[in-house]
Amino acid sequence: MAPTRKPAAPTYAQLFGDGSGTSYSGPSSSDAVPDSQTSQRVSSSPPLPPQMPPPLPPAAAPQPVPEGAVHPDLRVPSYAPFARYTVEDLLAQPGREGLDVLDPDRPRGTYWFGANNRVSRSVSATIKGYYNEAYPNWSKTANHVKITWFKYFAQKWHWSLGITERVKAEFVAKAKIRLCNTGFDWKDKWEINRYEGKPTELTKDVWDSLIAYWEHPSSIKKTNLCSASRRTKDKDGHLPMLHRTGQEPHA
């Protein structure tokens, strides 16, 4: 009986090969890295930041507007009535045909300061219509209030642009008197009726401020001097003419 042959030992290729019986010859096409992927890997470093432009120089500080460059009528707070308008602007607005006309030459149907009491009463009404603080006299009245008073006056009367400065000068002269007389009238009411004498056109705060002014020692001294002056007779024995808001002539 012939001896049994032992089976041959498996080869390396049979043990570790890919099963095809062929030896390994490098990576297959499916295992190779594509060129595009390779290029992506090479360029995967972060891009350089874009070059920033140089910073702008600091803006120049705005230069203050010279006072002479601003029209005097516009030197008022923004909250003031007609703050954006000059008197000339108001006179040029349409629809003023029905207003009474001021003319120093006094042609028929026109008016002028001192010629009758209508203009003077209008000045008083203008002051009382915009009396939002205590203005006991002209020197203690803010300039923007004086400007606004004249603008209010220009809303009630019409005149040619060429005489605006003359009208303004007449208005200021009349307003000084009327403001003082109005203050005297209000003070008389306060002295007679005390706090209950408050005029209807004044707010409580304004009335309180006026009373505080009248009770101040310097104001009392000035009032006494004015009273003595009003009682002084001239060389003909006449007392000074008092211009009060309730009188028809002389105002």
UniProtKB/TrEMBL annotation:
UniProt feature, compositional bias: Low complexity: 21-30
Biased composition (Pro residues): 46-65
Superkingdom of origin: Eukaryota
Location of the region described as Disordered in the Swiss-Prot/TrEMBL record: 1-72, 231-251
Protein name: Uncharacterized protein
Organism expressing this protein natively: Brassica oleracea var. oleracea
